[in-house]
Amino acid sequence: MRPALSALALIVVAVAIGVGVFLYGGANAPSAVGPVPVVGTNIPFTELASGAQSSVTRRTNYLIISTNQLRELWKLIGASGSLPSVDFTTHSVIAIFAGEEPTAGYSIAVTRITDGTSRDVSIELTTPGVSCLAAETITTPYQILKVPLTALPYTHQDTATTTGCLQ
Fold first, then answer.
1. Which of 2, 7, 93, 127 would bridge 64 by S-S if both were Cys, CB 3.0 to 4.6 A apart?
2. How far, in Å, CA of 137 to CA of 132, rounded?
3. At CA 129, angle to CA 123 and CA 131, rounded to 5?
4. What are phi and psi of 7, to 5 degrees?
5. Rounded to the nearest 10 degrees, how much is the dihedral formed by the CA atoms of 149, 151, 153, 154?
6. What does DSSP assign to residue 132?
7. 87: region left, alpha or beta (phi > 0 left; psi from -120 to 50 alpha)
8. Are 93 and 48 in contact (CB under 8 A)?
9. What Å distances lie between residue 28 and 17, 18, 101, CA to CA?
10. 57 three-class SS
């Protein structure tokens, strides 16, 4: 009987402490009805390369954080000329690829980069309209950018647009 009485007393004390914390412990805690919107800071970026022909045939994004990775990326796009100079202690490189498309007139471009709780990259994927006369050649659009280094996680948002060709 003694152990049961001790257990009951312990439960009563735990409930009393819980009620006290619930009623009085949150007096200094901020209250919120919903998520607090984070206004993003616009981040500058510099285009290193863009084009319509690469060896990347699927829609993908890459974050490049070293000269060796940049060298491999340069091979993926078949770039001629020297490797761009990037100080990876202060910058990183992002590469966006639209994947394989059936005709000319497709493109991909970063329209904005903002920092908040994450680094959000806004990407616009453009397709030719039905009235466009586009060369029937396989294209693989891409863009490569240099951006300031961050510890924030990256996210992206794709927006699709269509080009109108009749005027």
1. 93
2. 14
3. 165
4. -65, -40
5. 0
6. -
7. beta
8. yes
9. 18, 17, 57
10. coil
**Residue 167 CB coordination number (10 Å):** 4
Report which DSSP code applies to 89: T
Residue listed under structure tokens 């409930």: 15
Among 149, 102, 107, 154, which residue's Cα sits nearest to residue 127? 107
**Residue 5 in tokens:** 């009485």
Amino acid at 57: T
Find out whether 147 and 43 touch, Cβ atoms under 8 Å: yes
pLDDT per residue as tens digits for the range 66-119: 999 999 999 989 888 889 999 999 999 999 999 999 999 999 999 999 999 999
Residue closest to 154 by CA, chosen among 96, 115, 99: 115
Locate 76 and state its tokens: 């993926």
Residues counted in the chain:
167
Contact (Cβ atoms closer than 8 angstroms) between residue 54 and residue 97: yes
Residue 110 has φ and ψ, to the nearest 5°, of -80, 130
Give 13-55 pLDDT, tens digit per residue.
444 444 343 434 444 434 334 344 456 899 999 999 999 999 9
CA pair distance 112, 14, nearest whole angstrom: 53
Residues 6+ apart with CB under 8 A from 130: none
Task: Check if the beta carbon of residue 40 is closer than 8 Å to that of residue 114.
Answer: yes
